[in-house]
Amino acid sequence: MDREYIIDTHTHTIASGHAYNTILEMAKAASEKGIKILGITDHSKAMPDASGDFYFMNLKAMDREAYGVELLLGVELNIIDFNGKVDLPSRYIKEMDIVIASLHTPCIQPGTMEENTNALIKCCENPLIHIIGHPDDGSYELDMKRVVKAAKETGTILELNNNSIVFRKNARENDKKMLELCKEENVPIVIGSDAHAVGKVGENANAMELVREVGFPQELILNYYPEKLKEYLAKNR
To answer: Whole-model pTM above 0.85?
Structure first.
């Protein structure tokens, strides 16, 4: 029997500098769309106009529930070198409910396949990082087989980014390759809307089309399994 899709792990608010709604507005939209667990993962400081360390340090002041939605308050870290360095101090990262690390061109220019791959593998090896965000961006050529292997070995989640499939270079074919490898290696993934406004919260149509095309098993999609997701979020804490 199909489970209910109730989790969106990747969304942004005005704190990211280029998104358009508040935490409470995003939570209300999630509630209206049947999302029960919402990740608020604003960009860290290397992204132009994003919030600084103090914003993330002070997230403890925010309630973890609004409009009947459980909030996972965290960060989308920017990877800033090819050894997996990120742009928020570890003492703040460890306080986050959910941590994504991603490559973004405003923060690091693409390197060689070896350099890009190494950056993601090093992030997988960082016990404070839960999810590798949109590893499908064709601007950063990857050895996807090595990335999937690293995710499996470290218990790191790979993201299928609903937004990427339409907007990032070669994302659809890269996501298809990632899904096929994850299916083969029994590696779970999470679908993130990457919503930057209320209208996109919980959106997954692009991702689900690809999931169906690949025949990716529902039991490896953590959006259906809050208990499994929380086990991954608790890793090495």
So the answer is: yes
Match 């590696």 to its residue by tokens: 187
Count other C-beta atoms under 10 Å from residue 156's C-beta: 25
CA 54 to chain CA centroid, Å, is: 22
Two tokens, residue 85: 């360095």
pLDDT truncated to tens, each residue of the chain (237 aa)? Answer: 468 999 999 999 999 999 999 999 999 999 999 999 999 999 999 999 999 999 999 999 999 999 999 999 999 999 999 999 999 999 999 999 999 999 999 999 999 999 999 999 999 999 999 999 999 999 999 999 999 999 999 999 999 999 999 989 999 999 999 999 999 999 999 999 999 999 999 999 999 999 999 999 999 999 999 999 999 999 755
Please state, in angstroms and rounded to a whole number, the distance separating the CA atoms of residues 26 and 197.
7
Q: Could you tell me the fold of the domain covering 7-233?
A: TIM Barrel (3.20.20)
Q: State the distance between the two ends of the chain, measured CA to CA, in whole angstroms.
A: 33
Neighbouring residues of 44: CB distance < 8 A, sequence distance ≥ 6: 50, 51, 56, 75, 76, 77, 78, 86, 87, 88
- Concatenate the DSSP letters of all residues of 70-115 into one string: EEEEEEEEEB-STT--BSS-HHHHTT-S-EEEE--TTT-----HHH
Question: Tokens at residue 82, please?
Answer: 């090819």
SS3 at position 44: coil
